[in-house]
Amino acid sequence: MHNERPSLGAPSLERPAGLDTNLDVSGMVDPDKGLVDRRIFSDEQIYRQEMRRIFARSWLFIAHESQFTKPGDFFQTYMGEDPVIAVMNKQKEIRVLLNSCRHRGARVCRADHGRTKNFTCTYHGWAYNLDGELISVPGEHYYNDEFDKAKWGLSAVPRVESYKGLIFANWDADAEPLEDSLGDMRWYIDAFMDRDPEGTYVVEGVTKWVLDGNWKLAAEQFATDWYHVTMSHASALMILSPSGKGPKKEIAERTGRQFTDEHGHGAGFPVHPKNRFDAQPVHEYYDYEFLKERLSEEQVTGPLTNGHATVFPNFSYLPVNGSIRVWHPKGPNKMEVWAWTVLDRSMPEDVAKAQRLYNLRTFGPSGVFEQDDGENWSECQANAGAFMVANTALNYQMGLDRVESREGYPGMTSELYSDAAGRGLYRRWRELMNTPAWHEEA
Ligand code: FES
Ligand SMILES: [Fe+2]
């Protein structure tokens, strides 16, 4: 459904030119040579441009469909830095509304999630219905006759679409459909989100934590980086290995594929006939032969279990433990991680519990793997803005020239150990950063 383009600013107001100056970032990333200018991780001006040219026009993950069952169910999240409310309206459609009162700008919803009949601003009491229309203004008679409530509804995100239970929204009314923008990435997502004919749901509640680190560090790692696993997660692998000695050679020397594409998405995974779920009850629950028929041999021996993925720009997931997460940008040096646990609807309770606990143990905020990753990103960020550091290019050259079309794997893939999807992510980043967005048109 194509809705109206949201208006920026207010009726009859005009902004001075130069308030939002865009930089040409062509020279800051060179995907062909595998080079990235470190200032893209720390520069405030670049960060502001990302908000305008990446987050204001990309499909951004909002929530899982199972979070909404009845009209009035709402969930508060962010699109870039903008607070939004996702809410099921009376027609049972999901609407995504800017959570900012049109009167003086207070948030009209301060609860994380819940069920409501309308959103009433606690500052002066303007009230909006589930479609964001302004329905009540205390003391309306103090305004003159020209005041028209119909013009002062909450800004609504014009495009809201879902794929396999995952709801995304886009401020660009003319954006290509979500499914087209996911493209070949759908096959990799299916290996995670389409194992169960009954679909998926998320465990209630979102785990949230703040990290010192630019959002791209996390998005990029989940798109492209299996390389860090044996080094960064050595102690975690040791704890989890049956002998207690790991990580074994088979882990370090695994082969696999890494998907990269022009939309900036990425996914990497070992390929092995014995790939399995790590939590034993989950492993025993799945019928891998059934899954091969439902999906494909390549999905089951690849992205079904182990691996990592990012949907550009800031939605990532891990199939083995059912973790889905958003890296909310909070300034160039900070991100807020929001993580959910996805479960198959057909899973018996004990299996679901095992998967939920496994996810918390490994990739919850104090999870044995998550802590390693967060520590790395904060370490990379720690001095990113220092003069000499910021002027020293970073290396993304692993697997240069090793990207090909390989039978069985949609799109272009590289080897498991490669920076291909990282280069793809920054290629897309550069393209969007250098292209005016819908809101810049006259
Ligand atoms: S700021 Fe919301 S009613 Fe005044
Ligand atoms: Fe990791």
TrEMBL record:
Broadest EC class assigned to this enzyme: oxidoreductase
MF terms (GO), sorted A to Z: 2 iron, 2 sulfur cluster binding; 3-phenylpropionate dioxygenase activity; iron ion binding; monooxygenase activity
Annotated region (Disordered), positions in chain: 1-26
This protein's record includes keyword ATP-binding: no
SUPFAM superfamilies: Bet v1-like, ISP domain
Keyword Oxidoreductase: yes
Keywords per UniProt: 2Fe-2S, Aromatic hydrocarbons catabolism, Dioxygenase, Iron, Iron-sulfur, Metal-binding, NAD, Oxidoreductase
Domain called Rieske: residue spans: 59-141
UniProt-recorded name of the protein: Phenoxybenzoate dioxygenase
Organism: Corynebacterium imitans
UniProt lineage: Bacteria, Bacillati, Actinomycetota, Actinomycetes, Mycobacteriales
